[in-house]
Structures are given as C-alpha cells and as structure tokens.
Write a structure and sequence with these properties.
With about 170 residues, the chain is an alpha/beta fold. About 20% of the residues lie in helices and about 45% in strands. It has four helices and nine strands; from the N terminus they run E-H-E-E-E-E-H-E-E-H-E-H-E.
Length: about 170
C-alpha cells in the first residue's frame, strides 16, 4: 500500500536552523530519518505581512511515517520570521511550525486561512507557487509556534512523493 498524499490533516514539523548540514546529521544520528532531500537556495516569493517579499532558503525534507520533517535554513532576503532562536555563533535548531495539509481546491485553502485569522492567528505570509499555495500564520500566543497550511497541486504532490521515507 502506498502512502497517502500530503493532504489533508497534520503533516509536518518544520524546524529552523543556522546549519542545515548539522541539523540533518542530528536527525540521522538520532535514527529519526535515514536521509533528507536537500533543496539549496530555494526561491520563495510571498506576501509577507501583506507586502511583496522574496527570500532564499536552504531546505531539507524527509518523511517519518506520515509526518514530514522540514528543515529551514535562512540564506538571504526577507528571512526574519525564521531567525528567532537560531541567532548566534553556535548551532541552532528549533521547532518553528506545525504544518497542516489542505485537501480540495485553492479556494478551500483560502477558506482555511480566513478561519485561522478569525481565530486570532495573524497571517504572516502566503506563497502562491508553481507547486501550490503555502501560508504561515502566527500561532505563537496560542500554541508556542507558527501554523503552516499547505495546499498542493499535482506538481506539489509529485514533488513531495519523491521525498525520502522511513517508518
């Protein structure tokens, strides 16, 4: 039996780090994942707090059972939302967000965003990319971390199906 697609429901633990190689090694050493798919200098075009912005991120992805581990290392551009907890000269690795897949259409994704905003979780960013739409909401006062919603089109589902799996 194959794994279900990234949608719907709880799907991702997103971590920020200042050293992607060391973060990957920490997960491998703990025997949580055997390998990561690495995407260096991933371009992110978004609406950040309602204004156009871009960032470059180094990313690592791996599946552990039905949960995706995402490692995010800010590289350049509008990366301030990823920085708290990883500043400084020493190695930093911190839980940043919990991601939820959204099934259905992009309109369903937009409805989820409106619901979260109405619950008091301010919209941080929205990225409408070639693989789908992704958003980050500020859930730190409620949950202690950000909330991400992921809606994937066919290209996004195909991409995430290629991520290494364990468990």
């Amino acid at each position: 039996m194959g794994h279900p697609p990234i949608n719907p429901g709880f799907v991702q633990l997103g971590y920020v780090t200042n050293d992607l190689e060391q973060a990957c090694a920490a997960f491998k050493k703990a025997k949580l994942v055997p390998d990561f798919f690495i995407w260096n200098k991933a371009p992110v075009h978004m609406q950040l707090y309602g204004k156009p912005a871009t960032a470059e991120l180094n990313l690592g992805f791996a599946w552990v059972g039905e949960t995706m581990i995402e490692l995010i290392m800010p590289v350049s551009g509008s990366t301030e939302v990823y920085m708290p907890g990883i500043e400084g000269p020493g190695f930093g690795l911190k839980l940043h967000h919990i991601g939820y897949g959204v099934a259905g259409t992009e309109a369903d994704f937009d409805a989820k965003l409106e619901m979260e905003i109405a619950l008091g979780h301010p919209l941080v960013n929205v990225s409408r990319a070639s693989m789908g739409s992704y958003s980050l909401l500020d859930g730190r006062k409620t949950f202690g971390h950000y909330i991400e919603y992921l809606w994937n089109n066919a290209d996004g589902l195909e991409f995430f199906a290629r991520i290494p799996r364990s468990g």
